[in-house]
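From the pipeline queue, job 12 of 40. The input is one protein chain; the requested action is below.

Action: predict structure.
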Amino acid sequence: MNPEQLKGRSLVTLKNWTPDEIRYVLELSHSVKKAARTSTVHQRFVGKTLAMIFEKRSTRTRCAFETAFGEEGGHPVFLSTQDIQLGSKESVEDTARVLGRMFSAIEFRGFKQSTVETLAREAGVPVYNGLTDQYHPTQALADILTLQEIFGTVQGKKLCYVGDGRNNVARSLCVICAKLGINFTVIAPPELSTDRELLDECSQWAAESGSKIVVSSSLADVLAADAVYTDVWVSMGEEHAAAERKRLLSPFRVDEALMEKTRNPSCIFMHCLPAVKGEEVTVPVIEGHRSRVWDQAENRKHTIKAIMLATI
């Protein structure tokens, strides 16, 4: 793959990134992390600016983008909905055109996928999806980097997501696993299963990569999993449905008994954070020896820096 083909590219979803492009970013992420470990300092974003638009609160996404860009000598600018006119007095299109003339790149974390897609279409500079209701591509990249660090080769490994199969993390993991040959199983109540349209798309990529995509409501399907992954039961913006989510998802809590159902002593636990300990995952699991959640959190920074290095 020619790295130059990524210059100027946006990352709104991994659906329009090829397996080779994804692998390149992951390889670059490993190099970025190694440099950080050896205190190697670069200033590759000197004279560059990054607009960071946040409709939703954030710990890992904001800190990862802001520190990754700043460490490279760039100037990140945080913009909440209280700071700019996005979608209120000014259209998303007009905001994109203005910011695209003032910034080298734009990050967006918010609700509608259509917002980040409009920004990417109109801005004329790279736009990065830091989370929408539909997709969370930077999280998925960090997750696969974590799996690579632990297992080396990820092709043929089994990643099992337990919980709300409709949420942005589950959907993004389904895409990246299908493209990279990782077997992906979603275990969710039927009411919260991954949508058929996305599964149909992913099945085409899976056929090419050799991965197997399974959707189930049976916890027995964690058998032979190399990683068990979960996320909060109530996503931001869905607080009104909290009681119903808890009712549906309580049987899908990840506890030590579920981890034992994998019958794989090397199986790890993953979570994108923040976690509601005692709900989607028990304290002994997330704080136990199988947990790799802090590695995932750190890897958000390294993969995000790699994305920006590849595209700016």
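Job complete. The longest strand covers residues 49-54.
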